[in-house]
Amino acid sequence: MTTLSIQKGLDSGERLTAENHEVDSPRMVPFASRPRSEELTIEDIRLLLLLAEGHPAETIARILCTSGRTLRRRIRAVCDEIGVRTPIEAAVWAARRGLI
User: b/e string for 3-38 if b means 16 or more Cβ within 10 A?
Assistant: First the structure.
C-alpha cells in the first residue's frame, strides 16, 4: 500500500499514487476499495489528515482558509462520499486505506 503525502503547491504535471493506483490529475485520488469510480480531491485528503491529527475545527478552518460553516459542510460531504457517519470514522477510514 502506498502512502500519499500532501504537498503544498503541487504542480499540475506531477503524478500521485494511492494504494498502487496512478492518477493523472493532481487533484483526484480514486477510492481503491469502492466498487464505483468515486474520487476524493487532494483538499479532501488534506482535511482528513488534519482531522486525524486532532486539530479543532476552528484551527482546520483557519488552515484551509475557510469559514467554520463551510468546513462543517465539507466534512459532512466527505463523510457522505465515503460512507461514514462521523469525522473520526472518516479519519480512520482514510488511515486504513493509506491515504493519510
Answer: ebebeeeeeeeeebebbeeebeebeebbbeeeeeee
CA atoms 74, 77, 84, 40: torsion sign: negative
Instruction: Identify the three-state secondary structure at position 18.
Output: strand
**CA contacts within 13 A on the Cβ side of 66:** 14
CA of 17: how far to CAs of 1, 69, 70, 75, in Å? 10, 31, 28, 23
Read off the pLDDT of residues 22-69 as tens digits, 9 standing for 90 and up.
444 444 444 444 433 357 899 999 999 999 999 999 999 999 999 999
**Ordered structural domains, the chain, with CATH:** 16-96 (1.10.10.10)
